[in-house]
Amino acid sequence: MNTFTLKKNMIITPKELQKWINEGNDFTVIDVRPENQRNEFPMDGLDTIMSENGPIPNIEGLKVLVCQFGIVTEGMIIEQNLTDTFSLLGGAQAWNEFQSKMEDLSQWSRQTVLPEIGLDGQKRIMDATIAIIGMGGLGCPVAQALVTAGIGKLILVDGDIVELSNLHRQPLHGIDDVGTKKVQSAEKSLEKINSDTAIEIIDGYLDESNGLDIIQKSDVVIDATDNIKTRQLIDQFSKESNIPMIYGGLFRWEGQVAVLNVNGSPGYSDLFPDSPSGGDTCADAGVLGMLPGIIGNIQALEAIKLIVDIKPNLVGRLLIYDGKSHQTEIIEIG
Amino acid sequence: MKIKIKCFSQVKYAFGKDELKMELEAGTSTSELEKMIRAKAKGKLDDISLRVAVNQKYLPNEIELKDGDEVAFIPPVQGG
Q1: A139–chain B Cβ distance below 8 A for any pair
Q2: What is the fold, at CATH topology level, of the domain defined by B2-74?
Q3: How far apart are CA A29 and CA A46, in angstroms?
Q4: Could you say which of A11, A43, A282, A304 is catalytic?
Q5: A67 is a catalytic site residue
Q6: How do the domains of chain B map onto residue ranges?
Q7: Distance CA A155, CA A206 (A)
Q8: Between chains, do B80 and A224 touch, taking CB under 8 Å as contact?
Q9: Would you give per-residue pLDDT tens digits along chain A (334 residues)?
Q10: Which has the closest alpha carbon to A95: A114, A112, A79?
Q11: For B80, which of A226, A254, A318 is closest by C-beta distance?
Q12: Which residues in chain A are closer than 8 Å to B74, comparing Cβ atoms?
């Protein structure tokens, strides 16, 4: 255990701080930001004392330190070995958002601090619905990454039951889930990570009768299937509804990812036209669990980039990743 | 002319290599090269569809290859 591990009780969220204020608790809020930042982003509805560029004043009682994003103050508590002192998670950015919208986004402060995400990007993530077709090797890491990022809603589609041989590559399912439905097992694990994400489960396979309806309800559809026929169906409905499809596929040590059908960009039928015959499934060809973990996380990353509109991305391009050499090839599809 | 061939998934397993270097007659086309590759694989690629990319770009039609081209044969992969 390293000494820089922050104890949970040194962190306070905007919501918890508001509760302290409402309850009339006795504490001092210390704003450690430089003057220009304080003037540019004044803190709404909070009386603070300033402490710029120096040690934290020795004040009796509980103290709450505030910086812009809540990162500097966590460091100060550790470095100065401060006691009875809390760091405001997400800093002034999260506090002001909470004051104006009564929405506490401080849980995602480490990603909202990214200039490409920010609070607006986080809100887009929290408003988005993503359908994941297949809850196996790719579907598990995709769902886990999206729920962790705070996605608004997931639609999980799979009719399979969990088998013992799935567990090495499908981390949302545990030993006690063997014999149960994959969508139910996944839902149970995902709720533990972030109960704010709404999860709709469809205990069945995507087919001609339900595909369009599932995809039309989504902002993005993730192809996490293990067969080409379903990929072609997803492609067809993705084109029909103009909902982007994020393709992922695996063969042993190698994975492929492409972002397809974005406002008329190439689709799976351009990537592999006609009725392609391909290699075996993971069950037949063999795979280490880390490979779907990597490829699934790349699919989830591309989904977030589409939702927040971050470029460059894999629209119209095929990424091929080799887990042995770690070489990545990117091919322009057209 | 000298051509580099990048092998992916089943193509890689068919030859046991990530890359092949081939000396071809000038004017060889991509589809002629594909036939050579399939023959060289001795049946291991018979049931596999392949897409061809030259210099990291998919091609809508066959083209004549040039000296120094990098050709990739890409099969679809099923697993997920």
Answers
A1: yes
A2: Ubiquitin-like (UB roll) (3.10.20)
A3: 8
A4: A282
A5: no
A6: 2-74
A7: 12
A8: yes
A9: 333 344 556 999 999 999 999 999 999 999 999 999 999 999 888 888 888 777 788 888 999 999 999 999 999 998 888 889 999 999 999 999 999 888 889 999 999 999 999 999 999 999 999 999 999 999 999 999 999 999 999 999 999 999 999 999 999 999 999 999 999 999 999 999 999 999 999 999 999 999 999 999 999 999 999 999 999 999 999 999 999 999 999 999 999 999 999 999 999 999 998 776 766 777 788 999 999 999 999 999 999 999 999 999 999 999 999 999 999 999 999 8
A10: A112
A11: A226
A12: 318, 320, 331
Q: pTM to 2 decimals? A: 0.91
Residue A82's closest CA among A95, A65, A67? A65
The residue type found at A202 is I
Q: For the residues of A25-87, what is the DSSP string, one character each? A: --EEEEE-S-HHHHHHSPPTT---EE--SSPPP--SSEEEEE-SSSSHHHHHHHHTT-SSEEE
Residues whose CB is less than 8 angstroms from the CB of residue A10 and which lie 6 or more positions away in sequence, other chains included: A74, A77, A85, A86, A87
CA dist A238 and A234 (Å) reads: 6
Q: How far is CA A236 from the centre of its chain?
A: 27
Distance from CA of B56 to the nearest CA of A (A): 5
Four-CA torsion A124, A138, A275, B51, nearest 10 degrees = 90
A187-216 core/surface letters (b: 16 or more CB in 10 A; e: else): bebbeeebeebebebbeebbeeeebbebbe
- Identify the bridge partners of residue A169 per DSSP, sorted by sequence position: none
Sequence-ordered list of residues with C-beta below 8 angstroms from that of A296, at least 6 positions apart, any chain = A137, A138, A139, A140, A141, A142, A145, A224, A248
Closest by alpha carbon to A312, among A294, A330, A328, A292?
A330
